[in-house]
Amino acid sequence: MDTTEENRLINAILGGEVESFAVLVRRYQRPIYNMMLRMTGHSEEAADLTQEAFLKVYENLERFRPSGRFFPWLYTIGLNLARDHLRRQKNAVEKTAELQLDACDLHQGQPDHDTAYLQHLDAERLPLLMAALPIDYREALILRFHEGLTMRDVGLALGISTSGAKMRVQRGLQRLRDKLRLKRKPDGA
Amino acid sequence: MPESKPKETSHEDLKILAGRIARLPDASPPPGLVDAIMGRIQPKKRPWWQNWLRRIQTPWAAIPLRALPVAVALLLLAGGAALFFTSDRDAFLSPPSGSAVPQPITFMLESPTARKVAVIGSFNHWNPEGYQMQRDTPEGPWRLQLELSQGRYAYAFLIDDQWHVPDPHSLLQQDDGFGNLNSALIVENGKLDANEI
To answer: At residue B156, does pLDDT exceed 50?
Structure first.
């Protein structure tokens, strides 16, 4: 959905056409729900928080600038809600992920090539590694590579500058690689 | 490869990681989520003039054609008022962000033995017709310049009408679910951004 279509829908919603909001919810429920799932690790909590995020967006739609970008704005609101929720719940998803990762038999007797360890990084292990990253790095990587956002929009969603977003993406990737290499050491040493 | 900053070979593993993140599976939201949200909201009731102000602050492309004459009149009549009343004059005066104006992107591939090469991708529905690459010298790199709007695209090279080859220099790689590996690029603010990590 492009900016033009989003602005048309938002103007319609503000004009009283509530049904237009369902179009925005259908379009963006998946990335927001998945973000909430990464933050909480629980599907029910993630669904509740996704609802809350969209309701908050609806309540504050008048404050969305027509020259702005809707998805980064929505993501910022969702991310703040999730952070508040985690603070209240003290739900340490990152620690849980670390424990799961330790129990995960990542590398056994692999050749010590630069990229060989990546061959064993399957679809189950990567989310665990990602969950062990600080939230800001993890979400920067997801927004950039999974959602395909521009660096500018990554910055808008995370409340940082474009150059800050570039740095966060680069460092996030490096941290992820370092985590993989650290996990490899006991076998590779 | 699309022309951009030179890639460092030490970034090879970062490139693979980025591609893996791109291919991470998503969980499906619960089926009743949209209905649950829609059941908790009421239509907004705002004064008519607030909606008018909103519309004249909206970038032109978002205004339906049938409403254009009205919008022009409103702009002339209410533009001054908007500047007076709005608390964010910069937002009113500045051009819209996220412009969808197409930008020139040059694809390049070194394949000295190929007889012909085309670029195929999500921007041309994977149809090579009209997307043949050219080279300046018999063994020089194949090139093709395209106009692409801001966004994310999957693409690959089609060599001699039969070999589907991802861009060896692209940062992002993704499979299409049918056994082919494609490259991905992100066009941002008039420049190629795919190799930025």
So the answer is: yes
Residue B76 clears pLDDT 80, i.e. is over it: no
The architecture in CATH of the region B100-192 reads Sandwich (2.60)
Contacts of A138 in chain B (CB under 8 A): none
Boundaries of every domain in chain B? 48-93, 100-192
Structure tokens at B37: 């949200």
Give the end-to-end CA distance of chain B in Å, rounded to a whole number. Answer: 16
Q: Which tokens sit at B76?
A: 């002339």
Q: Which domain holds residue A110?
A: 92-189
The DSSP secondary structure of chain B, one letter per residue, reads: ----SPPPGGGHHHHHHHHHHHTPPPPPPPTTHHHHHHTT-------HHHHHHHHHHS-GGGS-GGGHHHHHHHHHHHHHHHHHH-S-HHHHHSPPSS----EEEEEEE--TT-S-EEEEETTTTT--TT-B-B-SSTTSPEEEEEEE-SEEEEEEEEETTTEEE--TT-SEEEE-SSS-EEEEEEEETTEE-TT--
> Which of A47, A67, A170 is facing B59, going by the closest CB pair?
A67
The rounded distance, in Å, linking the Cα atoms of B30 and A152 is 31
Residue of B7, B10, B11, B13 to mutate for A, most A C-beta atoms under 10 A: B13
Say whether pLDDT at A67 is over 70.
yes
Last residue of a domain, one of A45, A65, A91: A91
Tell me the CATH number at A34: 1.10.1740.10
Final residue belonging to a domain, choices A91, A126, A158: A91
Instruction: Give the confidence band of A189 by pLDDT, cuts at 50, 70, 90.
Output: very low
As for how many domains chain A has, the answer is 2
pTM reported for the whole predicted model: 0.66
